[in-house]
Automatic annotation (TrEMBL):
Official protein name in the record: DUF5711 family protein
UniProt keyword annotations, A-Z: Membrane, Transmembrane, Transmembrane helix
Record-linked Pfam families: DUF5711 (PF18975)
Keyword Membrane on entry: yes
Chain segments annotated as transmembrane: 49-68
Source species: Clostridium boliviensis
InterPro entries given in the database record: DUF5711 (IPR043765)
Region (Disordered) residue spans: 1-28
């Protein structure tokens, strides 16, 4: 009997085993493949949507770029206008987001919305100013005071014993100043707080080095380019010299690492400028010279651009150099040439306009006089030409591609350029 019960139990177990159906491996594989294909399909769909959106955005960006590049504005409207503090106005320089206004009795920094960020009072008989990146310097020519500023205000004041001829500043706030003595001139250096740096260059007026005409510091403050005038065979000649004040320059006497005389025989160099830490230029009456200091101990003249006619104006930014010449050929009275910092030509354009100032601001070349302006882009296209019913002292680009900030002695306006718009 027990054997029968045992047999029945085994039969029931066997029936139960047969009723349990195991999961099919093939079905698991099919299910995973379906999920995988679904995910791949979703990814492809998302990628196609991304490509379409990217294509639309790219087309919009190209269209917008083309519009701003080729359109010519014929009118403007005033976005805002603000009155400025009156004073014995001398000039404006591009500084930070807008301009540095300086006069005989003080200076102020005005931002891109016409707000005076700071005001500094002083007394100078003949203020001269220079800007390099976030720092500015104002010196009293033939006086003895040098004021140093950043975008937050005055950082220091340097007082000299000898009269000041010129001053320049680096993008780190180091100041170099030409000081005049009866028998020699000196280039002294000062920190941003106005304290004296124990570095100087002595130039004998009757010596081989010549009379210093202009100087410029590199943005990092370690290099100085100088323009000098000296007498040779009864004729005044120009010279460009480079000094290095980094550690590497200690190995050279007077830290003089390079000098160029030959390009300026019977010619004078009126102005020099470091455009960035590598490239610099010199403006002479016979043309423009472009230099490179990639080799800190051996500056190189990389391009000499001769002046085809008399030079009327020179101007520059950290990326471009502009020159305006009298045009003896053709119907236009003047010729505008713009170059990159390495001396390569960007564009050339003839024009008739009677300007008094020329600036480069970003990718704009701005010519203006006391009541009108002409604005070119870096393709040489005339973007805007207008006459204003208010006095102009400075024009620069606004916050948007189709805006300009126009500053006068006592007021500032931001204007929006329009196609076929009315003058307001």
């Amino acid at each position: 009997m027990s054997d029968m019960n045992s047999m029945n139990r085994e039969i029931k177990k066997d029936q139960l085993r047969r009723q349990i159906v195991p999961a099919s491996p093939q079905k698991d594989e099919d299910s995973n493949e379906i999920i995988k294909r679904a995910r791949t399909k979703v990814k492809k769909k998302r990628f196609k949507i991304f490509l379409v959106v990217l294509l639309i955005l790219s087309a919009g960006a190209v269209s917008l770029y083309t519009y701003f590049k080729y359109c010519q504005y014929t009118g403007y409207s005033v976005i805002w206008e603000k009155s400025l503090n009156e004073g014995s106005y001398v000039g404006y320089l591009t500084f930070g987001s807008n301009v540095l206004k300086y006069s005989k009795d003080g200076a102020s920094y005005i931002d891109s919305q016409g707000k005076e960020v700071w005001i500094q009072s002083y007394e100078m008989k003949s203020p001269v100013a220079s800007v390099n990146g976030p720092f500015a310097v104002i010196a009293d020519q033939q006086g003895n005071s040098i004021y140093i500023f950043d975008k937050t205000g005055n950082t220091g004041v340097a007082t000299t014993v000898l009269p000041i001829i010129k001053a320049t500043v680096s993008a780190h706030g180091v100041v170099a100043a030409i000081l005049e003595d009866s028998t020699s001139n000196y280039v002294y250096f000062y920190k941003r707080d106005g304290s004296y740096l124990d570095v100087k260059i002595k130039v004998l007026l009757g010596g081989k080095s010549g009379y210093p005409v202009d100087i410029s510091l590199s943005p990092d403050g370690t290099q100085l380019i100088g323009a000098y005038a000296y007498l040779k065979n009864g004729t005044m000649n120009g010279r460009v010299a480079f000094h290095n004040f980094a550690e590497i320059g200690k190995s050279v006497g007077n830290r003089l690492v390079g000098g160029f005389d030959e390009p300026y025989e019977q010619s004078l160099v009126a102005q020099v400028r470091f455009l960035d830490d590598t490239y610099s230029c010199a403006f002479a009456d016979n043309g423009i010279s472009f230099f490179s200091t990639k080799n800190a101990l051996s500056p190189e003249l990389i391009k000499q651009v001769p002046a085809e006619d008399e030079i009327k104006s020179v101007f520059f930014s950290d990326k471009y150099v502009g020159i305006i010449l009298n045009n003896s050929e053709g119907e236009n009275e003047y010729k505008l040439n713009v170059y990159k910092s390495n001396g390569n030509l960007v564009f050339t354009s003839g024009f008739q306009y009677q300007y008094t100032h020329a600036d480069i601001d970003g990718n704009l070349v701005i010519l203006y006089n006391e009541d009108s302006c002409r604005v070119y882009n870096m393709s040489g296209r005339l973007k805007f030409s207008s006459t204003f019913d208010f006095p102009i002292s400075k024009i620069r680009g606004g916050r948007l591609p189709n805006t300009l900030i126009v500053t006068g002695p006592q007021n500032m306006k931001e204007i929006r350029l329009q196609i076929g718009g009315q003058y307001q």
